[in-house]
UniProtKB/TrEMBL annotation:
Lineage: Eukaryota, Fungi, Dikarya, Basidiomycota, Agaricomycotina
Domain Carboxylesterase type B intervals: 85-513
UniProt organism field: Mycena sanguinolenta
UniProt enzyme class: hydrolase
Protein name as it appears in the record: Carboxylic ester hydrolase
Gene3D superfamilies, A to Z: alpha/beta hydrolase
Length: 556
């Protein structure tokens, strides 16, 4: 395998490619300011000795690189191999990758103060100690947001460190989104980088593998964990290189609402028409500057990627939002594709064939889904023809497949109920069960069912400071929250949610392959926690079998 690419660039002040690190040390029990005594080891990162403060402080002093617009122009949408030195943590502004909306994640009418930029490949390290007696298990968290939204600053890794009794290190990364991270088509294959956002993640994992020991983490005890598109990203890393990624970058995976929308081949009609061909209707309502760009003699349609490289970040951001906002509700325009190298074949095919990074006997998986995953993605006031809805979200379906899908869901209440279930199961729940089946005798499964149990409502339980979609705590019961979070963190440390870091009310938790047993996290009508094992619904598995049978038309 060739050396891993570094994938990052900006149209303005950036520079060469890099991942910049910020380090947070919160020793919440000792509450002391720890001097950074690992300067000798950190010289490998190009750093000088600094001080890690109680909350946020400088890790090391880096060297700024002069503005290199000509190089940036050549590298946009491409890979590069140079690394910039890590920047001083107190000099790093809160920035996010260019994304669908500049609105606040908690209030869409309030603009965010964060800076959107292409120079966004940061990772944050949260460690209880730079010199623990033994190196600690490490979580690498991948944020969600449908591959078009989200950023590391929505999550405070110190939450997980504290909940683990200071027994883990947490790394939270960012990756390029939307048009900037998931542009597809023949031109991108030939002159750019397909699945750039996934390659950003891969590079971050390799950075962790090479350097996490300098922050108290153990490279051999890494768990990758994500929610929604972050969980989908975990799935992508699990099947990367057809399960043959080297070196081994993680020993365990956690998925919270595994997200697998249609993932076509990079040169199939749908991603090419949707993403790269303006004259075929992809760019819909464009900002006024872009039509003039297309009409320019140098942008006559023969080199659309070259044209995009001449466009500034702000205009590309407008194009990005226009494309995304014109998609059919519940569909996702900029998503991973099968590129033939990093993602060799459809993810579900890799799972069925057992070609996964995680095939070692000791490798483990834990997955959680929410009861009502699909509801937030469906207009609850609309009228639906179920067969037509199915064909809208899976445009390669013919009449036969659309009617067959409608028949499978016909008994599940009203057309709205059926559509809610189709979205939740085809995109989130059924991919989760396919993932579980790829880890026989090595996987645990849970269901978050606190009403209304919508997509993402589980996240705030393990990230109390979470600020994003569905981030209101709907059941504030300390026994429940402790039980729910300890299942995940005990798994990270011990690969077994039963080997608890703290006492909890969770009963013995069997592996999913044991009679397809899951752990239900719910509450009683009287408001008491209800945590108990249950069997996966056989009817649900039948519906998942239908989706698996038509996976190639779905793009899964």
């Amino acid at each position: 395998m060739s050396p891993p690419p570094v994938v990052c660039q900006s149209t303005r002040t950036v520079l060469a490619c890099s991942i910049s690190a910020r380090v947070y040390s919160r020793n919440v029990f000792a509450a002391s300011v720890a001097p950074l005594v690992a300067g000798r080891a950190l010289t490998a990162l190009g750093c000088t000795v600094g001080v890690v403060l109680l909350a946020v402080g400088p890790l090391c002093v880096g060297v700024d690189i002069d503005d290199l617009p000509d190089i940036v122009l050549l590298l946009k949408f491409m890979l590069c191999t140079s690394k910039k030195k890590i920047r001083d943590a107190d000099q790093v502004h809160v920035v996010v990758c260019c994304q669908e909306s500049s609105a606040s994640p908690t209030n869409p009418f309030t603009p965010r103060d964060d800076e959107e930029t292409e120079d966004c490949l940061f990772l944050s390290v949260y460690t209880p100690s730079l010199n623990p007696p033994t190196l600690l298990p490490t979580i690498v968290w991948l944020h969600g947001g449908g591959y078009v939204l989200g950023f590391a600053g929505q999550y405070d890794g110190a939450d997980l460190v504290q909940e683990s009794n200071n027994k883990i290190v947490v790394v939270i990364i960012q990756y390029r989104l939307g048009l900037f991270g998931f542009l597809a088509g023949e031109q991108v294959k030939e002159g750019g980088a397909l699945n750039a956002g996934l390659l950003d993640q891969d590079f971050a994992l390799r950075w962790v593998h090479d350097h996490i020991d300098k922050f108290g983490g153990d490279k051999n005890l890494v768990t990758i964990w994500g929610e929604s598109a972050g969980a989908g990203s975990v799935l992508q890393q699990v099947v990367a290189h057809n399960g043959a990624t080297t070196p081994k970058l993680f020993r365990a995976a956690i998925t919270s609402s595994t997200f697998l929308p249609s993932q076509y081949n990079y040169n199939d009609t749908i991603p090419q028409v949707r993403i790269l061909q303006p004259k075929l209707g992809m760019f819909f309502s464009l900002p006024s500057r872009f039509p003039r760009l297309i009409d320019d003699p140098s942008c006559n349609g023969t080199d659309p990627l070259g044209c995009l490289r001449t466009v500034d970040s702000a205009t590309l951001g407008e194009i990005n939002m226009n494309v995304i906002e014109h998609g059919f509700q519940g569909t996702f325009t900029f998503v991973p594709v099968v590129d033939g190298s990093f993602i060799v074949q459809s993810p579900t095919d890799s799972l069925i064939q057992g070609k996964v990074n995680g095939s070692d006997e000791q490798d483990m998986l834990l997955s959680v889904t929410n009861t009502n995953e699909g509801i937030p993605f469906i207009n609850q006031s609309a009228q639906y023809n179920v067969a037509q809805y199915v064909r809208n979200i899976f445009p390669l379906f013919g009449v036969k497949e659309s009617l067959a899908a409608a028949a499978v869901y016909h008994s599940l209440g009203s057309p709205l109920d059926q559509v809610n279930a189709i979205m939740g199961e085809s995109i989130f729940k059924c991919p989760t069960y396919s993932l579980l089946e790829a880890f026989p005798k090595k996987a645990y499964k849970s269901q978050y069912a606190i009403p209304p149990a919508l997509h993402s409502q589980d996240v705030i339980n393990y990230f109390p400071d979470y600020t994003a979609f569905n981030s209101t705590l709907i059941y504030n019961n300390s026994n429940f929250i402790n039980a729910f979070t300890q299942g995940f963190l005990s798994f990270v440390v011990n690969l077994n949610p039963n080997d608890k870091l703290r006492p909890s009310i969770t009963p013995p938790w069997a592996k999913w392959s044991t009679l397809m047993t899951e752990m239900l996290f719910n509450r009683t009508e009287g408001g008491e926690p209800y945590i108990a094992p249950f069997r996966t619904s056989s009817a649900l598995l039948v519906r998942c079998a239908f989706w698996k049978s038509v996976r190639h038309l779905m793009g899964q």
